Amino acid sequence: MTAVLDSAVLDAATLTWQDVCASGDLIPDRGACALVGDQQVALFRLGATDELYALSNHDPFSRANVISRGIVGSRGDVAKVASPMYKQSFDLRTGVCLDDPSVSLPVHLVRERDGRVEVALA
Ligand code: FES
């Protein structure tokens, strides 16, 4: 199981997890979009670490649902995704914009179970 938000792991048992796809559906370092409840979630699997990340698919700068089509990379030690629109980068772990820390994407808990990827909306 991979959980992104450590502080929330203790509460994981009480969260409602939604099945989104098979683990094998996620291509390393490429985003995928999933509808969880009524929210578009951008999912990422890092090739280097196999870690999963789930963030809002909505780019606050362009107001378009495009984060899942962003370019995965890193800035220093920080794994990030750059919006395909105006290229702002977001920390995959926290959702904070590296170019404007006053802006951040909502991040969601994501885990892998029995070959399936599950997301819980925070
Ligand atoms: S609907 Fe998924 S990326 Fe646009």
Show the helix and strand layout.
Layout: H1 6-9, E1 18-22, E2 32-36, E3 39-45, E4 52-56, E5 58-59, E6 64-65, E7 71-75, E8 78-82, E9 89-91, E10 107-113, E11 116-120
Bound molecules: FE2/S2 (inorganic) cluster.
Number of helices in the DSSP assignment = 1
Helix and strand element order: HEEEEEEEEEEE
Q: Main beta sheet: strand number and arrangement?
A: 6 strands, antiparallel
Structural category: mainly beta
How much of the polypeptide forms β-strand, as a percent range? Answer: 35-45%
Bound heterogens, unique: FE2/S2 (inorganic) cluster
Head-to-tail CA distance between termini: 17 Å
Question: What is the alpha-carbon Rg in Å?
Answer: 13 Å
Major sheet: arrangement of strands: 1-11-10-4-3-2
**Number of E strands:** 11
Low-pLDDT stretches: none
What number is the mean pLDDT?
Answer: 91
Q: What fraction, in percent, of the residue positions are helical?
A: under 10%
Q: Which descriptor suits the 3D outline?
A: globular
Summarize the structure.
The protein has 122 residues and is mainly beta. The chain has one helix spanning 6-9; strands at residues 18-22, 32-36, 39-45, 52-56, 58-59, 64-65, 71-75, 78-82, 89-91, 107-113, 116-120.
Please give a structural write-up.
By secondary structure, the chain is mainly beta. It has one helix at 6-9; strands at residues 18-22, 32-36, 39-45, 52-56, 58-59, 64-65, 71-75, 78-82, 89-91, 107-113, 116-120. Strand 10 and strand 11 (116-120) form a beta hairpin. It is globular, with a radius of gyration of 13 Å. The two termini are 17 Å apart. 32% of the residues are buried. The model has no long low-confidence stretch (mean pLDDT 91). Bound molecules: FE2/S2 (inorganic) cluster. Residues 33, 65, 68-69 line the site of FE2/S2 (inorganic) cluster.
